[in-house]
Amino acid sequence: LGRGYRTFLSGSPEAAVPYFDRFEALDPWHFEGRFYSGALHQALGNDARALEEYDRALALYPGMQGAIYNLGNLRFRRREYAVAVETFSRVLAVNPVMVEALNNRGNSWAAQGRMKEAEADYLRAVALRPGYADALYNMAVTRFRLGDQIGARKWFRATMEADPGYPQAQSLADSLGMK
For residue 105, which of 91, 62, 94, 35 has the smallest C-alpha distance? Predict the structure, then answer.
């Protein structure tokens, strides 16, 4: 497992597959091995296998927040937004202060057009981690989508204070007429 994990982290996920497969054959009941195999297959774009591995990890350790969180991200990427909301809610039941899960659940709400629910999650994430640029940025986008230019600018400025090099900032600045 260790060699496969190191190979995966070194930027060679394809080369890590045989290590994970061999480990799984030797110890199919190892929940961390299943979790890392899920992450590996998710990185390779093999969603079906990633889902299978995360489900196996959760069958062995139902409270494994990393597996639940990654499942939520996978469901979001597959545009299964309602399922992603449910999945991020599950991880928040395990860890109610996980700001990444709050932010991503907010993204799942927003993708369904449920901006008020999205805003509530982003605000909670910012309350828990005041400089969290992803949630700050998402608040700016939410306020923009709700037609609140002043609020969008306020949250955009907060994003730039938290992270001046935030990657998506330029496109939002253009939309808000800011330079």
Answer: 91
To which H or E segment does residue 151 belong? Answer: helix 149-162
Instruction: Give per-residue pLDDT as tens, 47-71.
Output: 999 999 999 999 999 999 999 999 9
Cβ 162 vs Cβ 171: under 8 Å? no
Helix, strand or coil, per DSSP, at residue 29: coil
Q: Write out 49-115 in H/E/C secondary structure.
A: HHHHHHHHHHHHCCCCHHHHHHHHHHHHHCCCHHHHHHHHHHHHHHCCCCHHHHHHHHHHHHHCCCH
Q: How far is CA 166 from CA 25, 61, 100, in A?
A: 43, 36, 16
Q: Which residues contact 83 (CB under 8 A, 6 or more apart)?
A: 75
Q: What is the largest CA-CA distance in the chain?
A: 59
Assess contact for 32 and 1: CB atoms under 8 A. yes
pTM here is 0.84
Distance CA 31, CA 68 (A): 13
Average pLDDT, the chain: 90
SS3 (DSSP) at 27: coil
Mean pLDDT of 137-164: 93
SS3 of 10, please? coil
